Amino acid sequence: MQSHQAGDLEAAERQYREVLELRAAQPDAMHYLGVLCHQRARSDEGVRLIEAALKITPRHPDAHNNLGNIHKECGRLAAAERCYRKALECGAQHYNAQNNLAVVLEAQERVEEAFEAYAKLLRQAPKFAQGYYLMGRFLRNYAQSKEHVEQSVQCFRKAYELDRHNLRALESLGMSLYTLNRIKEAVQVYRDWLAREPDHPVPRHMLAACGGAQAPLRAADDYVRQVFDAFADSFDEQLLKNLGYRAPQVLADALGGMLTGAAGAFEVLDAGCGTGLCEPLLRPYARRLVGVDLSGGMIEKARLRGGYDELEVAELTGYLQAHPAAYDIVFSADTLEYFGELREVLEAAHAALRPGGWLAFTVEVAQGEDDRVDLAPSGRYQHTHCHVERALSSAGYSQVSIGTDTLRKEGGQPVAGWVVLAQRTAQG
């Protein structure tokens, strides 16, 4: 267990198996080996091991909870719910299981039940910072009135009060304040944070996003890395909870209508792959599927999915520039919104494409007829149609399609995006 907790999974697996050689069916060894197998992208084996352990110790709430976590992370929400309810049956005060139950209820769009589950969690564990953070997100995502957003502010403040390392709570606090048009308060949150940690990239970027400083040309690498490394463990969970998240599917559907040729024939780059949510959408097209992301934490999660032929931690523009004419498809869902001016990264993608290859990406919509980029209070950039069109033209693309669709919901409201397809000419 010490090896496991230290992240030495290879040593931990060997040691768990040594325990099981000495004592076959030792339930704790099977349970924790099952968790480890899931971490090493062998989720089915992990399920079998934990289920075997539960036949020996059927009232072990931690084992039921961890089995639920595997099902949840594999997208089997109903199975996960059953496991969490069993964990609570065995240990009514198991607040991690209560937290996870609330998450999967929300992911199944059972909003009233999810709210009751979050409320019960806070009654059970009044000092659990993550519970307040999740309740704050729930209140803002499903806000029916201004009062719900105001309650989210209270939750985010409490979450940060209880856990000063919970940077997501501070970011979310600023966003809720901005949503309430309490812009000066949002700016002050980031100024106070920056005063305490003057070198921290998150408040530096978010202060600019809230209008308290000049916007950078693009999100700094240290900001993106910090945010997504910290977000890696809960990224898929948050997207499951954010029920309107649909950018990968929308973009994949648009791209599929343009492609000709045999299935599985293309060299594909998932540019800004995150935890690998796009992998099952891209794999049918790919002879070889590569993922690149600036966040090492995200790449490790993508590695667990086991569907990529290669994964690399790298800054996207530099990676594209270093791989000329390497790909038939460059696919980038919800990544280029961390870039302001798009020309440089689109030129790099053009160079990385083979003749006739396709670039597919989404960015958020900025309203207006002018060539403009705005840094929104979310920390993401928004681009006008004119800017996207001009950047593509300058980068040398030929056939271009720019459509609109809803990419996700934020604060309970739809976020509009440009769904962009652009082809490198077949001649070069």
UniProtKB/TrEMBL annotation:
Record-annotated membrane-spanning stretches: none
Asked if the keyword Glycosyltransferase belongs to this entry, the reply reads no
Keywords of this protein's UniProt record, alphabetized?
A: TPR repeat
The answer, when asked if Manganese is one of the entry's keywords, is no
> Where does the record place its TPR repeats?
167-200
Q: Which Pfam families match?
A: Methyltransf_23, TPR_16
UniProt name for this protein: Tetratricopeptide repeat protein
Q: Which organism is it from?
A: Dyella choica
